[in-house]
Amino acid sequence: MAKVIMVQGTMSNAGKSLICAGLCRIFVQDGYRAAPFKSQNMALNSYITEEGLEMGRAQVMQAEAAKIAPLVCMNPILLKPTTDMGSQVIVNGEVLGNMPAKEYFSYKKRLIPEIKKAFRKLSSMSDIIVIEGAGSPAEINLKENDIVNMGMAKLADAPVLLVGDIDRGGVFAQLIGTLSLLPDEERSRVKGLIINKFRGDKTILDPGIQMLEQRGNVPVVGVVPYTPLSLEDEDSLTIRFDRKKRGMIDLAVIRCPRISNFTDFNVFEQNESVTVRYVTSVSELGDPDMIFLPGSKNTMGDLRWMRENGLEAAVKKKSQDTIIFGICGGYQMLGKQICDPYHVEEGGQMRGMELLPVETTLHQEKTRTQKKSSLHQIRGRLSCLSGMEVSGYEIHMGNTSTEKSGAEHLVLSNGNVYGTYLHGIFDAEGIAAAILSALAKEKGIHCDTDGMYSYRQLKEIQYDKLADTLRKYLDMDAIYGMLRESRL
């Protein structure tokens, strides 16, 4: 059975996911079979495994860092918010149903056997399991029936590393406050503290670290510097949404309220001449070179939001001379009509943006599949993509019928509007570079795409960079000592 270590944080976005990913890469580099685990994830960025099961992308990223295929047992429970008060509950990769938050809070303890089963399965094929917590273990209102922080640490009998985010300030209060709010049994599980996202001269921190260790009675096992990385982050707190600068090539993503799988656009960020902006209003939209309509967990609701704030009208007007590309829910929005006879979302039917000759009917069964194919003949301004190899996954509620046959992935309307159900379509080698080259040629500028990687290649470089950073700034001898003491 595997040895275990758990990474918890003082708050959301303290850096748990990346610390876990970096540890997974280090353990693999050192010759161990490592695997990530998170009992319950709340995210709208999800992934479909080879078996057609759905899981959170954070554990997919960590599995990639561990150089193994993502398995749904790495994330047995996924919550996908559908409203501010409820979520779609996915257990072992399949939809259990929609639940209000209060109902799920009472129900979740019944899922502990599924968590144990998934963890045992993963443990049987691993040497080391790196477990990620969620939010903070000191969230008193959520501690009852906890299954993701100290509750999970107890189930796995795991030593805990507690991560604090110095970049947002108050890191000493974060760490000491969290420790002080934990019961003795839980506090005893915390074997090391990590100060994350530090900028500056570490010697300035030394007096604070001494105080921290004295008051907390837990050693500080690392001060990790702020390290810019092109890797996926927690979707609800990503800093990507705050970027407003416009580059030589300006790509705008409509940031609808229930945006999902915006990781589709990360591959473009590696080019210094390109900016990827997430916009929520007509004034923010400006005059981009290309507009993306991303996936959505509530297609009809997000289309209504676009309609009410003027973005729909603005996008339709821009489609006369700007490339519009919709993915999944964005693809559905671009069609003539969306019908919801089974009340999957809001019920009834809704006029689409009428930019693509397709109609969508939402169904209760979710399509979950991986695909690999070459693109059919693509007409218009993205004809450069014709015949190129792509791979990715589909995850959507509903079927979309088209008036044109043979358009398996892309559907062309007036030469500027495209749509696909395939998440990850831009990640394959050459796809993003071809799009940027076409946009640059139209503008009469040069965009150097020779050094662009496929998204997979780019992430491999980033995982190694992350591992190198953690090796330098974490006490890995102490962490390996914690693993030897774990009793699983």
UniProtKB/TrEMBL annotation:
Q: Does the keyword Chloroplast apply?
A: no
Q: Name one Pfam family in it.
A: GATase_3
Known PANTHER family for this protein? COBYRIC ACID SYNTHASE (PTHR21343:SF1), DETHIOBIOTIN SYNTHETASE (PTHR21343)
Q: What is this protein called?
A: Cobyric acid synthase
- What does the UniProt keyword field contain? Cobalamin biosynthesis, Glutamine amidotransferase
- Catalytic residues at C328 (nucleophile), H423
Residue span, CobQ/CobB/MinD/ParA nucleotide binding domain: 5-228
Spell out the InterPro entries in the cross-references: Class_I_gatase-like, CobQ/CobB/MinD/ParA_Nub-bd_dom, CobQ_GATase1, CobQ_N, CobQ_synth, GATase_3, P-loop_NTPase
Give the encoding gene's name: cobQ
CobB/CobQ-like glutamine amidotransferase domain location: 251-429
Name the domain of life this protein comes from. Bacteria
Provide the function of this protein: Catalyzes amidations at positions B, D, E, and G on adenosylcobyrinic A,C-diamide. NH(2) groups are provided by glutamine, and one molecule of ATP is hydrogenolyzed for each amidation.
The pathway it acts in is: Cofactor biosynthesis; adenosylcobalamin biosynthesis
Q: Which HAMAP family match?
A: CobQ
List, alphabetically, the SUPFAM superfamilies matched.
Answer: Class I glutamine amidotransferase-like, P-loop containing nucleoside triphosphate hydrolases
Q: Which family does it belong to?
A: Belongs to the CobB/CobQ family. CobQ subfamily.
